[in-house]
Protein 1
Amino acid sequence: QVQLVESGGGLVQPGGSLNLSCAASGNIFRVSAMGWDLQAPGKERELVATVSGGGTTTYANSAKGRFTVSMDNAKNSVFLQMNSLKPDDTAVYYCYIRYRPTWSLSNLVSWGQGTLVTVSS
């Protein structure tokens, strides 16, 4: 497994902004995708946004127009710029990487520990 370090979560008022960061390190041969999921209390984990190794982005309907995902290929890092935050955005956000390791032909996925985003006045 690779190591993922997340940062950027916290408490923000409705309408505010946050930027989440996630950096991966380890025996990575090729990155196929990086992105973010969220899990709200009592609900299933769901996609927020993802970016492929080729630069294609995908967003949940709730994130479109408000969030922007980007990736730094050289640093194996992914970012999530969140604007116009709503109370419903409150959740733990988990970054992930889908990759081929240096020691296998398998397509693997690793997850970060999660960072809590709380949107409240």
Protein 2
Amino acid sequence: QVQLVESGGGLVQPGGSLRLSCAASGNIFRHSAMGWYRQASGKQRELVAHISRGGNTDYADSVKGRFTISRDNAKNTVYLQMNILRPEDTAVYYCNAKHYYNNNDFDDYWGQGTQVTVSS
């Protein structure tokens, strides 16, 4: 059974910082590309940041220079450091794992989501 458990969300003032964590259970982390998505009220879920199995990263334009994704394979955990937060970053943030079972095919796993609210 694969589980992704997010933590670290909360209420923060504009300009503040938060760090999200996502711990993966099951023997999948090392073979998974990891991502953070978010879904604001009334909007579609969007990719925020992605880190490949080899550690290459990619970001949505709206968060470049403010957010950093990283992974610790020894701890089966992926992080999202969010700085200079804006009200428009308010959303439920979801952790995603794409577990590759061959070079091209993967299974998708999702966490339960954690609320991030940026407000004064």
